[in-house]
Write a structure and sequence with these properties.
Length: 629
């Protein structure tokens, strides 16, 4: 959450502290500093110690964040395999290193500057675009931060930024590098080309039995049948349980009455407001309006644009200042208010349009409410049903027996390969968490109990067991004759088209035009082609060949079906002018150079200060156990 807030604050240097510190720890080499010691401190950087419990909380927060992003739970072993422990410790150690140096240098920041920095964060802005204290505290509460903890974190971040700016905040990529990137990214090319499709190959004689026999014998592995597994599964989700939940009309009517206000669409008004710094200015503007001045004239006199005063179409609850909301929703359409004393200043508002609220009839929302109620009850019953299934499995019942006993529909996949396809080559469909299920099934043994797959952090489960394994095997020619003949034919067509494309290219390089080099084929032109951007009719490999070919020269690429050929000639190469604005890639290069300088500085500081890490404590926090040093 803290990273998200920092990202929203923007700024090149601020972004350094989002991902760079992980890099500094990786370069520094965690293995060199794992020197276990007996204290309850996790690490020490110079005179500063990192508390184990603070790290434990941060680690759990990061683990939960990663689980949400992946949509499934992460075990301690998986987290360590991903390097989550080292990544987080690296960030903390590198940040603390800079904090220590900032203290040594006597760097500080006054409260007013810090307050302005926090107020400028877009994450804390309300509907008016200004800093909203209520939103500020709401976001901190949801992130588990106290105000003091967040303010201290931002104070230390700003001091680190001061160090970063002093080191390399204004460093740009060298001009020669910027020019090279500009030329590479901005270069445009125009090509003429013809496509040799399958029909251009002419008639391909049918293969003889001997040719097919030889072709198949040389490529048996390409036609090999993969390993298939038969899987029985039970999917338990709110949706599957909701199908059996019955909601009576009386229950439905009761919930409708309870939710009428929330189901209703509130009245909305198109509002414009001018915020004045003091009541005197607002009163003077109000007098001008009374004397005949237009609202737009007051807006212009304040140096504002229409977009600066427009709140849009809003409901009353969306206007955070209750005094302004009450006054605005008492105005008739087209009328301008008198000065309103609000929480953020004195306001004059105008209502341009009113959209009346609407309360839906019971019949309009009954079906939607029924589904929501059924899902709600199903979610409440999910864990109970989970426990029943686990109890049945613990008694030795197979999944098919469990499903029959509990009245749950079992899913049977008769045969599936590792790619999720059936023997006919079609993908398996309509199976919950199929990817995780197949991944687990291909590491399981027949009849061996497996752990269920957890869906979306506890929003459902899929139990599975492998009931049969069909080993991979070599197919006979008779089984795959149609596929073999089709592939043989494609190769013959591709070979013939490649020969014809080569002949066309030779004539083009000799100076002929497409009309002579490729009579009967339609020539097409594509101009202003740029690297990395798709072009209709030309696949990636052909585009890559285009940019490897000099102006005036020709080349051959592969058509989109991988069988046909494209013969092209580069007619124009245009490089962008030197004065052209820097591209995103150039900006990234400059940031990379700044990052490298900061990394080297952090490494130097760590060597000066000395860093030690309690390996035993780290393993305890991350679930790795104590395996010694």
């Amino acid at each position: 959450m803290l990273e998200a807030l920092r990202k929203s604050a923007g700024g090149t240097v601020a972004k350094i502290f989002i991902g760079l510190l992980v890099l500094s720890f990786a370069i520094w080499g965690i293995g060199d500093v794992f020197r276990g010691f007996g204290s309850r401190d996790l690490a020490q950087i110079g005179p500063v110690k990192i508390d184990i419990e603070n790290f434990r909380q941060l680690y759990q927060d990061r683990l939960q964040q990663l689980s949400r992003e992946l949509g499934r739970g992460i075990t301690p072993d998986q987290a360590r395999t991903l390097g989550l422990d080292r990544q987080l410790l690296g960030e903390i150690v590198s940040e603390t290193t800079l904090d220590v140096k900032a203290t040594q240098l006597g760097l500080n920041i006054d409260n007013q500057t810090l307050l302005a920095h926090i107020h400028a964060n877009p994450a804390f802005r309300g509907a008016t675009g200004a800093f909203d204290p209520n939103r500020f505290y709401e976001i901190l509460r949801s992130a588990g931060f106290s105000e003091a903890r967040y303010v201290d974190s931002e104070r230390r971040l700003i001091l680190r930024q001061q160090l970063a700016r002093a080191l390399g905040g204004d460093i740009a990529a060298p001009q020669v590098v910027r020019d090279a990137v500009r030329r590479f990214e901005g270069e445009q090319r125009t090509v003429e080309y013809v496509v040799l499709d399958r029909n251009a190959a002419g008639a391909i004689p049918a293969p003889t039995p001997a040719e097919i026999d030889t072709y198949f014998a040389d490529r048996k592995s390409a036609f090999r049948a993969p390993e298939y597994r038969k899987i029985v599964a039970i999917a338990l989700t709110p949706e599957t349980l909701a199908a059996d939940v019955k909601i009576s009309d009386a229950e439905l009517r009761k919930v409708y009455e309870e939710r009428r206000n929330r189901l209703a669409t509130p009245e909305r008004r198109e509002v414009e407001q001018i915020v004045f710094p003091n009541a005197a200015d607002a009163q003077a503007a109000s007098q001008r309006l009374t004397s005949g001045a237009k609202f737009e004239e007051i807006v212009a006199a304040r140096g504002l644009k229409p977009g600066d005063v427009a709140l849009g179409l809003v409901a009353k609850r969306e206007i955070l200042d209750s005094a302004v909301a009450d006054a605005v929703f008492a105005l008739p359409p087209g009328e301008v208010s008198k000065p309103i004393t609000g929480r953020f200043g004195t306001v004059i508002a105008r209502v341009n349009k009113i959209e009346p609220g609407k309360e839906p009839a019971f019949a309009e929302v009954a079906e939607t409410l029924r589904k929501e109620m059924a899902l709600g009850q199903a979610r409440n019953a999910l864990l109970d049903q989970h426990d029943r299934i686990e109890d049945e499995r613990a008694s030795g019942a197979r999944l098919g027996e469990v499903a029959a006993k509990l009245g749950i529909k079992a899913i049977t996949i008769d045969a599936v390969d590792r790619s999720g396809r059936a023997p006919d080559g079609k993908p398996i469909e309509n199976v919950t968490a199929l990817g995780e299920l197949i991944s687990g099934a291909f590491t399981a043994e027949v009849g061996v109990e497996t752990d269920p797959v957890e869906i979306d952090g506890g929003n459902g489960y899929v139990w599975y067991e492998v009931t049969e394994i069909t080993p991979a095997r070599e197919r006979t020619l008779d089984e795959v004759r149609d596929h073999v003949e089709a592939r043989w034919k494609d190769e013959q067509i591709a070979k013939r088209l490649a020969e014809r494309a080569g002949a066309i290219r030779t004539r083009l390089d000799a100076g002929d035009g497409f009309d002579k080099a490729a009579p009967g084929l339609k020539m097409e032109t594509r101009d202003k082609i740029q690297r990395g951007r798709p072009v209709d009719g030309l696949d990636r490999s052909t585009l890559a060949a285009v940019f490897d070919t000099a102006q005036g020269k020709s080349g051959v690429g592969t058509a989109e079906d991988a069988v046909g050929r494209v013969v092209f000639r580069v007619t124009v190469v245009t490089t962008p002018p030197a004065a052209e604005a820097a591209s995103q890639r150039v900006a990234e290069l400059a940031t990379g150079i700044q990052d490298d300088i900061l990394v080297q500085y952090v490494l130097h500081l760590q060597q000066q200060l000395g860093v030690s890490v309690n390996q035993t404590a780290l393993r305890t926090v991350t679930g790795g156990g104590d395996t010694g040093n």
